[in-house]
Every structure is written in C-alpha cells, then in structure tokens.
Amino acid sequence: MVNVGVHVSIAGGISKAVGRASVAGCDSFQIFSRNPRGWSFRDLEPAEVLLFRQELEKSRVSPAVDHMPYLPNLATMNPEFAEKSTITLIAELSRCGTLGIPYLVTHLGHYGQEGKDAGQRRVSTMINSALAEVDNPVLLLLENTAGEKNGIGSRFEDIAVVMEGIENPSRIGFCFDTCHAFGAGYDLRSAEGIEDTLNRFDDILGLKKLRLIHLNDSKGDLGSGLDRHEHIGLGRIGEDGFSRFLSLAVIQKFPLICETPVDDRRDDKGNIRKVRELAG
C-alpha cells in the first residue's frame, strides 16, 4: 500500500487545500503556503491556522508538505536577492511550524559567474542562517534538480558538498524527484538503473535521510537536463520504469507526491490511480 498524493491549490484559504486533497483521493499532499510567484506575503491568520489544523486532523491525510516559492535562490551572489531569499526561507520554516507541517521542500538554486563551489557554499550559509532564526521541528528537505545550466543539486555529490557546510544536519532531509533525476542522467527505466541510482544515493547522501519522493514522469530524455514533468507512465520513464520503481519496499515506505500536469489526458485523480495501479 503506497502513500500517494499531489500538489493542491490554497485558493480561497489555506484550509481549503485539505478538502481538495481529500477529494482527489490523496493520502498526503503538498502546497505553497502563499503565492509562489512573488516576494510579498501576508501573515497567517490565527483563525485560518486553527481551521487548517482541524481539517488536517479530521482528514487523516498525512503528511502535509510545503514547497518553497519560485523566486528565492539560495545560491545567489546578488546581495538583494540573497537577503530576500533568506527572509523567505525563514518565513516558510516558521509558517510550517505554525501550521503543523513537518516538511519544507527547497531547490538549492543557481550559481553565477563565480562558479559552483562558491554557490554551494552560499547555499550552506543561507540555510545555516535561516535555521538559526527558527527553532521548530520542521525538516528542510533538499531536492535534487534536473541538470539545468548553473543549477546546484543535479548530482548527489553536489548535494553532499552542501551538506558538509550545514551546521545542524539533523534538521535537514532529502526529497528525491524522479523527473529531475532522469533529466540529470540517473536511469530509472530498468531494474539495474534503479538499483544503481538508489545505491549511489545511499552511499553519497544516505537513504536514512530521505523523507519524500516527488513522483513525476519526464518529457525530456535521459540526461537531457530538462525539468518538464509528465503524467505518470506517459513520459520517457514510462509505465515499466515506474512499475519497477514502485514495487520496491524501500520506495513504498515514503510519501509519493505527484507534481504532474492537469489536462485533457489525465487529472490529479487519474495520476493517483495510475500510481496505485503500477504499485500493485
């Protein structure tokens, strides 16, 4: 039995996300806690926090996951963007604690002309600064990326370098994205490729620190560097790849969050059904 869900909207109030997750048939779900496309945000109202927590407890959908907004860049060399990104990270960690959300997922960002090593050091520094400001049990989950230009985190070794600079590693976990891994060159289509990928992840980062899987098929080819999500089984990983991946006991114990399209081919409910079908 797998724990599978999708990313849901908070339109009309954050508590409404819980009902949307339940209607879609989710076991777990992911949200943005505020508008993901801007820097500004309003504080959470006590009444909506209470309602969110009540709806969450009543639904028994768990865990709820928050994702960082789009604009922050933890690796930026721009002082203004660095300050805004740090403020956002602090705010999201705090909001998760207030809402009773255990996990906050973040990408590691993009470095500039000074190179990857400096960018990785800045990611560690920004995370350390944010964690020092927020004292709560929320785990910050570092997500692997697809290998886009100047991106940090497409190779497990790069995430390990960031971890070396983290002062409190007990507050860090990992989110593994299947589309991103495939785009970065980790083959998830064959049993051998999946085994090799998971063994490398375990050796370099540690499966014991994995907390969440973003389950997405890929519109891009293996090693393409493309971060373009596709419906489960309809992309380049395919049904056979996901069937093999989802059959593994080590995978079935993690929450699986789909960030897949909604179009005339399939909706969120359809992707959840497909995941359960392929998991057997």
Mind sketching the topology for me?
Elements: E1 3-7, H1 16-24, E2 28-31, H2 46-59, E3 64-67, H3 79-99, E4 103-106, H4 116-133, E5 139-143, H5 156-164, E6 172-177, H6 178-183, H7 191-204, E7 210-214, E8 217-218, E9 229-230, H8 238-246, H9 249-252, E10 255-258, H10 268-279
Parallel strand pairs: 1-2, 1-10, 2-3, 3-4, 4-5, 5-6, 6-7, 7-10
Antiparallel strand pairs: 8-9
Helix pairs in contact: 1-2, 3-4, 4-5
Structural class: alpha/beta
Q: Specify the biggest β-sheet.
A: 8 strands, parallel, barrel
Q: Could you give the order of the helices and strands?
A: EHEHEHEHEHEHHEEEHHEH
* CATH C-level name: Alpha Beta
Write down the overall geometry: globular
For the secondary structure, the number of strands is 10
Distance between the termini: 8 Å
Specify the CATH homologous superfamily. Answer: Divalent-metal-dependent TIM barrel enzymes
- Radius of gyration, whole Å: 18 Å
Low-confidence stretches: none
State the helical fraction: 40-55%
- Give the oligomeric state: single chain
Strand content: 5-15%
CATH topology name: TIM Barrel
Summed up, the helix count is: 10
Architecture per CATH nomenclature, i.e. the level-2 architecture: Alpha-Beta Barrel
Number of domains as seen in the coordinates: 1
